[in-house]
User: Which sequence fits this backbone?
């Protein structure tokens, strides 16, 4: 029986060098908690915010990571059985208790979702938190309907690409932005109907293509581009802010009447594992396996101190289109 495990610990906010591989005691799950043998975990902007010191309520040192994919190792008092494949996310992971950057993690049963799939671990590791946010943004945040037009501001992000897959499956017409013209063909291959090169303002180009404005828009860049995204949206259309690729999420001196165009609805979305129904996860995995939903190949890193540091540097500098995943072998 193992008594220790390897984990990536953030000793304090700062540069990537503050991420260190440590040998820690094997975590013991109390009643109602589940110990997961982690097979892969995705990287998220939330963890970048934690490393940069922008997250509130985090104590250090901390094993960060707001999601993990793996198999049940122990589940006292639970309906789960050892060996079951599961995903987990949010609920304080990597913030108020140790998270997914580890060989093992323990989490409350309520935030564990079992599934069945033969997809490789690096693909499965790319899905849970991104799918949760994509699904919640399109349903709760935007109430997107088949045949509507959708603008994705920040289209080459992992979340933007996941939204593209779900919205395409729904039958939406998709407009997506990128700051790099060289990524246009990639977005089209992923199902985007119109690619917009984002130089800070796209509303005129959007309204040239859709004179009245799009039905729905998902803001993933943050507050610097939010006014322009609002201006690209029709009266009675909806803009949902669900991401902060710019690391900027506050609007100074916010005056709603002057800030939001008349008749445009502004919402926000941030969910948890409870917001991703198990059947939605399973259906998505089945469609990815069948090829009916396109999933951008993730950038895969090894579970080493050097690779995790490199992954964080790549995320911070926006070097990768799509999801960054660490696989444990």
Assistant:
């Amino acid at each position: 029986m193992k008594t220790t495990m390897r984990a990536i610990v953030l000793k304090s906010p700062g540069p990537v060098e503050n991420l260190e591989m440590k040998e820690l005691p094997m975590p013991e799950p109390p009643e109602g908690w589940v110990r997961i043998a982690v097979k892969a975990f995705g990287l998220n902007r939330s963890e970048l915010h934690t490393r940069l010191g922008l997250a509130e309520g985090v104590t250090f040192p901390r094993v960060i990571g707001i999601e993990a994919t793996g198999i049940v190792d122990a589940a006292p008092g639970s309906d789960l059985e050892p060996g079951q494949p599961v995903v987990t996310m949010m609920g304080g992971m990597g913030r108020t208790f140790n998270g997914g950057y580890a060989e093992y993690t323990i989490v409350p049963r309520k935030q564990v979702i079992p599934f069945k799939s033969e997809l490789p671990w690096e693909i499965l590791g790319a899905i849970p938190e991104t799918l949760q946010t994509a699904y919640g943004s399109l349903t709760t945040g935007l109430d997107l309907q088949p045949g509507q037009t959708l603008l994705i501001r920040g289209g080459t992000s992992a979340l933007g690409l996941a939204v593209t897959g779900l919205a395409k499956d729904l039958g939406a017409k998709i407009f997506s932005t990128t700051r790099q013209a060289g990524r246009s063909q990639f977005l089209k291959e992923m199902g985007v109907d119109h690619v917009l090169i984002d130089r800070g303002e796209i509303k005129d180009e959007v309204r040239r293509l859709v004179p009245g404005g799009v039905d729905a828009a998902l803001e993933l860049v943050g507050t610097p581009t939010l006014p322009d995204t609002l201006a690209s949206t029709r009266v009675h259309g909806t803009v949902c802010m669900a991401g902060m690729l710019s690391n900027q999420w506050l609007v100074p001196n916010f005056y709603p009447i002057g800030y939001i165009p008349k008749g445009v609805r502004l919402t926000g979305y941030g969910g948890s594992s409870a917001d991703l129904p198990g059947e939605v996860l399973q259906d998505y995995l089945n469609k990815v396996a069948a090829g009916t939903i396109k999933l951008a190949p993730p950038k895969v890193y090894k579970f080493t101190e050097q690779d995790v540091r490199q992954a964080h540097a790549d995320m911070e500098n926006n070097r990768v289109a799509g999801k960054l995943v660490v696989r444990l072998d």
